[in-house]
Every structure is written in C-alpha cells, then in structure tokens.
Amino acid sequence: MRVLVAGATGVVGRPLVGALRARGHEVSALVRDLARAPEADRVVVADVLDRAAVLSAVSAARPEVVVHQLSALRLLRDDPAAAFAQTARLRTEGTANLVEAARAAGTRRLVAQSIAFAAAPEGPPVLDEDAPLYVDAPDPGWAATVRAVAELERLVPGSGLAGVVLRYGTLYGPGTGYARDGATTLRVLAGKLPLPEGGTGITSFLHVDDAVGAAVAAVESTATGVFHATDDEPAPAAQWLPHHARALGAPPPRTVPAALAPRLLGWFTAHQLTAARGAANDRARTALGWKPLRPSWRDGLGEE
User: Fold this and answer.
1) Three-state SS letters, the chain
2) pLDDT attached to residue 76
3) pTM of the model
4) Which single residue of 7, 192, 194, 240 could bond 187 by disulfide (Cβ 3.0 to 4.6 Å)?
C-alpha cells in the first residue's frame, strides 16, 4: 500500500517508516525539515499547520493510508509549555488539515496518534476506551491538552475515512523521557522525583517498539475506532518508580506527603503519581490483532 507518515522524524514516526517499508509498503515521509528526513520511498516537505502546503504534499504522495504521528514533545526538556501548546495545535489544526488533504487525495484510511492517560480519574483503577476524558481538569494546561485530544478523537472517526485512533500508553525506550538520557530518568537519577504517599496513580506504559507495531497493525487492519495501545501491566507509582530507580542504580525515591505533591512536582506529575487511571488494551488485541511484545514495563524500563 501507499502510506504517508506525518511526523516521520519523531520517536515513533522514524522507526515506523522503516517498519512499514520492511513489510513491503511504499512509504512517503511528511517532514518539515528535509535534512531530518528518514530513508523513505518519497519525502514530501510541509508544515502540517500550513493548510495549502499539506494539501499539495498529500496530493503529490497519493496515499491510500495516512498515519498521523505528529507532536512537538521533543521540546519538552527545554520548554514544556511550548511543547504542550504546539502539540495541541498539531492535534487540532494539524489533524483538520490532514483530514482535508487525505480526503482530497482519495485516501481511504487514517490512523492517528493519541494518548491513553487523558481519562478523568473516576471509576476503577484501569479503564477502557469508553471512559470520559478529563476535559475539565483543574489544571488549565492539562485541560487544554485533553481538549485537544478530544478534538483529534472527534475529527478522525468523523472524517469520512476509515479512521483509527491509537491511544499510546506512556512511552519508554530510546528517545523518550524514560531513556537513559531522558528528562524523567535524569530526575530519578538526581533524586528529584519523590513518591507521594501511597503512590496510587496508575500508569500504563508502552515500549516504542510496541507503539510502532500497533501503528503497523492499524495500517494493515480493516478495523476502525479508538484503541488503547498499552502493555499488559498497568502499574501504580508505588511499583514502577522504585523499580525505575533500582534499574538505574539511583537512590530510592523519597516519600513526600500526597497533599504537597502538586506544589513539589507540578500538577500533572502529581496527578500521574496519585490519581491517574490505567488503560486496558483488550480492544486493540481483539480488533487489531495486536499485542505488545514487551507485555510488562519491567522488561526494559530504566535499562535503555
């Protein structure tokens, strides 16, 4: 198939281009900077926020499938606010432009990246895809992020194309915040990521390789809908954070009162460690025929 990967220079997008080509697909890489483009059958250059440029680029590629892997999270270490704001634009304006361009080019299928940790902290510890999103989160930044996720998840299934939304779990592996040189890892190594009392927030992790595998499965499947792509072991912070520290040879995280966590850690990190829900992957397994090759975060977290 002819597949266009938007966001082809990212942590998932770059290896995804190679994985799709290895399976015999003809892959076009949509990039902003030609110098950073991966090896692909075709490279098309456009800023996805430039509607006219995207229409032209997608038309030139004539893809049967468009894969949306766009984010600006590479900016997180230097400017978190800018990273989240730009990613929100990519999920809203960028998605709308890709939808329009895909429809105009005769594309039949659209696969888009989302996140599995945007659910409201209500109900059981592990939630399925029907759980409400946390659009009314008390933190304005996180509320804006989740509203952008909700818009992406509205646009893709409503595009008139065969739409798939992959909600990735918290990514670990090369190029992520949990890699040896990643931002979260550096905080753990420095003893600057304490554990709020209880550590009851649940994280569903996903190795980058499994994110690539889920995207390949979504490209090749006929299923549509919203799917959690996560590992099989949703984990409370009280388990994964000490494990991460041990794997790194870092000092054990110190314990702090849960009530102080937002002030010490920031609202989102405190939420992740104290209140977040995990994400069940049953639907992706059944509908997409996908399963994680690393079913547990214990296999690799803190080791790459």
Assistant:
1) CEEEEECCCCCCHHHHHHHHHHCCCEEEEEECCHHHCCCCCEEEECCCCCHHHHHHHHHHHCCCEEEECCCCHHHCCCCHHHHHHHHHHHHHHHHHHHHHHHHHCCCCEEEEEEECCCECCCCCCEECCCCCECCCCCCHHHHHHHHHHHHHHHHCCCCCCEEEEEEECEEECCCCCCCCCCHHHHHHHCCCCCEECCCCCEECEEEHHHHHHHHHHHHHCCCCEEEEECCCCCEEHHHHHHHHHHHHCCCCCCEECHHHHHHHHCHHHHHHHHCCCEECCHHHHHHHCCCCCCCCCCCCCCCC
2) 56
3) 0.96
4) 192
**Could you tell me which of 72, 64, 78 has the C-alpha nearest to residue 92?**
72
- Looking at every residue in the chain, the average pLDDT score rounds to 95
Percent of the chain with pLDDT over 90: 93
297-to-172, 193, 232 alpha-carbon distances in Å: 8, 18, 9
